[in-house]
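so im writing up the methods section and need the Tetratricopeptide repeat protein record in one place, dumping it here so i stop losing it
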Amino acid sequence: PQSAYAYCGLGIIYSEQNMIKESEQYFQKSLELNPKSAVTLCNLGILFDKCGTIDQRIFYYQQAIESDRSIDQSYNGLGLAYLDKQMHENAKQLFQKCLEVNPQNFNAYLNLATIFRIESNYQESIVCLERCLKIDRQSDKTFSIYYYLADAYQQLGMMEDAIEYLKKTIEIEPQQYFLHDKIGYIYEKMGNLEESQKHLETSLKINPESAGTLANLGFINIKLGNYQEAYQQLEYALKLDPGVLF
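--- predicted struct ---
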């Protein structure tokens, strides 16, 4: 019925404005007229993603799938609910089903990458994250994708690739000192002390009172034979945080 679609549309409008009570009322009116509306049921799941219980989310997404198995958002939403419930295998199967319905679903790949990262399956996580970039390289998730790619490559011992993606994160957020810390750490592990020193110094310019960065830079300078600088940095690090070296 056309009025059911209209009520659903109003529910979506109120949901996007975070007017939860009004949104739910219109979705329920839509269901009174068309109880099997998969679009309305899915949108109720989306609404309860914001404010409801996990069981409410599961209920509406399951109802949406039973009504129409062609809506990819229902599988993704149900997968997220199971992920929040720590039921990773169920969540994984639902994200994969979502991708069967819509192979271009960015969020399903991103959510699968999260599960693979939890499972320490970094190779599969990389596959999913790189697929996200092929679908949309300009999303608001790009920074996080680059960061998680860097971390996955680091975990696999592929340090050059890790550095490549960390540099991409810095292009997006140049004032995030911890990114320079991370690159500095990787360069140290690779034996490139000069590059490590450079990035740690950049980190300190952004956050001059980071005891951890000062301590790391101090140890790098010891290895480089810069003992006076190392002494000053380690002394200041201990002043900021007496437990930083332990």
